[in-house]
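for the writeup, i need someone to sanity check this before i put it in the appendix. the sequnce is what the collaborator sent (i think, or maybe the updated version? ugh). structure was predicted straight from it, no edits. if anything looks off just tell me and ill rerun, i have time this weekend
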Amino acid sequence: MKVLKFVCCVVVLALLWGCAPPLIVIPTEEELDAVKRFKKTVAIIEISEKGSPIKGISESAFSGLENALVGHFNLVEREKILKVMAERKFAERDDVERYTELGKLLGADYLFFGRAMAFFNKSEIKHSIKYYKSKEKEDYKSKEQEKGEDYKSKEQEHYKSKKKEEKFSGSIWRELKGTCELNIKIVDVGSGIVRYADKKVGAMSRKEGKKHYNDEKQFYKALDYATKTDIIIELASTFRGLRKENSRILSQAMEQATEKFKDLRDKFPQTGQILQILSEKEVVINLGSAYGIKPGDKLIIWEELAPIKDPKTGVVTVPKQKKAILKVKKVTSGLSCIARGKRKYIRMIRVGDKVSTH
């Protein structure tokens, strides 16, 4: 019996261990310093709220955008940006040349400019209706049929049986919905060219004061009352509570919008190379948590082709093509990870092959 209990415990622990999330390897200060020169440095200059019906969302946009970029880029500290802007007397209307000068002073490769918009839709009364069958009443109907009870017509029979079979269920609630938009423009400090411009939208809603009804007459009476009094009574009595709820909803909507800017990682990929072939399915790559790499990320192995000289411009380029796509199995340090792929792909890979995050 004791042996059986021991075996069961081992099985349970094994299952729990298999379901546990992968460990997060935190890079050391030395590793972070070592990779700084290989990552692009960005400075978030401003996020304006100009034109937004609701103010006070720029801080949420700042923190959300920083969270989306951290690890993949070197971020210039906000305090340093404000200090340099104050010393050099930068204004919001300054031209691109002035801002590229600012970027050089900050040691940034790219400057981020944003505009945040927040909207709160008026609260709406929502409802749902459902009819469901009752087994007890179905049995009653079948007994009546067995007695040979006749109806005037088949239509009446269908209507009567339907009435007996169905039960009513209805719900009424107030829905609060907030929407946030974040427009981002990225300027290359070296050339002054806009490298990226996009808009992301986040929307969140919340159900409040939901009530259930099993009586159809009571439901429609309550729905009529709620619809008529929503504007006058409900908004007046819960105004403060709604303002607090609005703030929470808009903050969540902005988080959703900034989260979508993680696609910037694809626009500005990290690069590395194959360090070691571990087995028929696994390799070691010099990209780790200091680069923002995590388990599950996909890495592309590239093959460089022969250099080609363009007869028109005289520029020599080295074209490349995808050799394989691997998946990060484990992050072993701030500077390395183990990636896994199919045997046929690993056979094609050589130590020193170029790798990128996209």
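The chain has eleven helices and 13 strands. The chain has a mean pLDDT of 80.
thx in advance!!
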